[in-house]
Design a protein that fits this description.
Blueprint: H1 20-27, H2 36-51, H3 83-98, H4 109-118, H5 141-153, E1 168-169, E2 174-175, H6 180-194, H7 201-211
Antiparallel strand pairs: 1-2
Length: about 210
Amino acid sequence: MRHHFYGDVEERNPPRKLSGSDIFQQVKEIDVTFGRLTELNARKKRNRQRKNEEGATQQWRKKNIFFNLPYWEFNLLRHNLDVMHIEKNIFDNILYSLLMDKDKSKDHVKARKDLKNMGIRLDLWPDENENCRLAAFAIPKAKRVAFLKILKNISVPDGYSINISHCIDLDQKRIFGLKSHDCHIIMEQLLPVTIRNVLPNEVVAVLIELSSFF
């Protein structure tokens, strides 16, 4: 898989969207016995099988149990996704990675080791003591307070969102207690403003574009 991750710009057209019948044809021969103990016992075997299938295009590891329903492969809306919850999850991942939260950041030692295993982004590999270089998107310590102060001092109309200042702890340099709607407000309207003077321009441009997605 590592040849898929070289940091190149992806300019190809998106792949054809698979129908339920297409997916069913790909997974119908996969033999799966559901259960936690069976899953643990079979994990090493599957890992060996995947290593022996280098170059194979098979991307499925099991057949979804819902395909046992006779109509499932013909169901046009197989999954109903909650956009607000998705946005909150994305916002949480971005925010806590920007603030380098030790518990919730997605940029941690394990992620850096994955980069090393894939042989990419040499500048972000951990050293022998598992110390990691600061990523371009991480807000430096000297600027985190300024970033949080901007959010803390923003005033919005009554009922527009939660009082964000109550959710910011400047001493601990963290944000807590945000609901889905609050994350939506910050992600779409406030984040593009607060990051302009604390992050490099190339990172700001990407985050502003992402903020407009929702």
